[in-house]
């Protein structure tokens, strides 16, 4: 049966690298949204807790509920419910109108739009937000923003950082005015964490780098990250393809000579990207023979088990996408095994 291995030592190595960069493990919140970027939410949360990570970031309250025994604080980026909240949750506020929908005494993260222009309140709405938060008796746990181009070679990051600095100054002023304790500030994602030489927020929200990847311009250097996940498939059948025979849907691969081929139990139904037989796509140095089917693919030889995915970035490059996309699609039903 196809399965995924999750390397504990690789994950801990990445967490150590990021903690060191940030100046302490308490400054690292691990982003576990979307099934921990396809790795497996339960397995990765347990590993985070084992390492001593105290803060997690998820997309929904549903995800947060399954993690509440592991973390001191769980930031919910897109809360889909306002009842049955746990004290460890902090719900992200993306619009002013959302504030009126939240029950009193809920912990919240106020998201401020400093340039991404997708969600978050505008910097000029901060005063109004503080007024509403106070009236509604919400607890301002954090103030956050998100960078749009930290992985690209451009000055965008510094433009956003300047706006963020001004936002923080406004928040200091408003906290004094409303007699509130200062919230925790957080802005950096993986790319900003790796790229910035100084970072004076209270913590960073790292996803991709924790799983061992980055998508940064090579000019920023080589970071010593180790991919955590590997995907293995098992052989279903072995057969001989005669010279001139074509294999798979559409028969896109023609055997140049008689050859031994095996079919393995991974396909695009498992969330692996679909190769359409165009160009040469290799897995572990071996050419994939013909199209990838929903539940299977074929390779030359008769190996019992093959590693289908060792480096998501290499696969992403072939398909014209990014490592995030390759990882996050992996079907949650594939068995996950944590290895040392
Ligand atoms: C996904 C996400 C992150 C993590 O980004 P990485 O590039 O994976 O480190 C951080 N903050 C927010 C708001 C996100 O949505």
Q: Could you please describe the fold and organization of this structure?
A:
The chain has helices at residues 8-22, 33-37, 41-51, 61-67, 126-135, 156-177, 190-195, 312-319, 323-328; strands at residues 3-7, 28-31, 55-58, 73-76, 89-93, 107-111, 139-144, 184-186, 204-206, 229-241, 246-247, 253-254, 259-264, 282-283, 286-287, 297-300, 305-309, 335-339. Strand 7 (139-144), helix 6 (156-177) and strand 8 form a beta-alpha-beta unit. The protein is elongated, with a radius of gyration of 23 Å. It contains nine helices and 18 strands. The model has no long low-confidence stretch (mean pLDDT 97). It has two domains: 8-220, Alpha-Beta Barrel (TIM Barrel); 229-339, Lyase, Ornithine Decarboxylase, Chain A, domain 1, CATH 2.40.37. The strands form four sheets. An eight-stranded parallel beta sheet has the order 8-7-6-5-4-3-2-9. The relative contact order is 0.15. It is α/β, with parallel strands linked by helices. Helices cover 26% and strands 24% of the residues. The structure holds pyridoxal-5'-phosphate (PLP). Pyridoxal-5'-phosphate binds at residues 31, 33, 77, 146, 189-191, 205-209.
């Amino acid at each position: 049966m196809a399965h995924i291995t999750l390397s504990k030592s690789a994950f801990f190595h990445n967490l150590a690298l990021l903690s060191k960069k940030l100046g302490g493990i308490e400054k690292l919140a691990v982003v576990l949204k979307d099934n921990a970027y396809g790795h497996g939410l339960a397995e990765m949360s347990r590993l985070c807790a084992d390492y001593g990570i105290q803060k997690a970031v998820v997309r929904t309250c549903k995800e947060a509920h399954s993690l509440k025994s592991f973390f001191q604080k769980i930031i919910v980026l897109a809360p889909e419910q306002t009842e049955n909240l746990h004290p460890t949750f902090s719900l992200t506020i993306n619009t002013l109108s959302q504030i009126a929908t939240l029950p009193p005494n809920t912990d919240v993260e106020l998201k401020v739009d400093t340039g991404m222009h997708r969600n978050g309140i505008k910097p000029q709405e901060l005063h109004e937000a503080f007024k509403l938060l106070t009236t509604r008796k919400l607890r301002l746990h954090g103030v956050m923003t998100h960078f749009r181009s930290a992985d690209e070679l451009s000055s965008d990051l510094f433009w956003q950082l300047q706006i963020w600095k001004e936002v923080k100054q406004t928040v200091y002023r408003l906290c004094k005015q409303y007699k509130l304790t200062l919230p925790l500030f957080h802005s950096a994602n993986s790319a900003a964490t790796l790229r910035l030489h100084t970072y004076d927020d209270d913590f960073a929200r790292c996803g991709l780098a924790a799983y061992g990847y980055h998508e940064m311009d090579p000019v920023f250097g080589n970071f010593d990250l180790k991919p955590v996940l590997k995907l293995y498939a098992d052989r279903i059948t072995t057969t001989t393809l005669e010279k001139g025979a074509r294999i798979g849907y559409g028969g896109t691969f023609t055997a140049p000579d008689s050859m031994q081929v095996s079919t393995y139990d991974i396909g695009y139904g498992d969330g692996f990207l679909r190769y359409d037989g165009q160009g040469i796509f290799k897995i572990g140095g071996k050419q994939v023979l013909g199209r990838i089917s929903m539940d299977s693919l074929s390779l030359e030889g008769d190996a019992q088990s093959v590693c289908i995915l060792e480096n998501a970035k290499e696969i992403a490059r072939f398909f014209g996408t990014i490592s995030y996309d390759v990882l996050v699609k992996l079907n949650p039903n594939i068995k996950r095994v944590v290895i040392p």
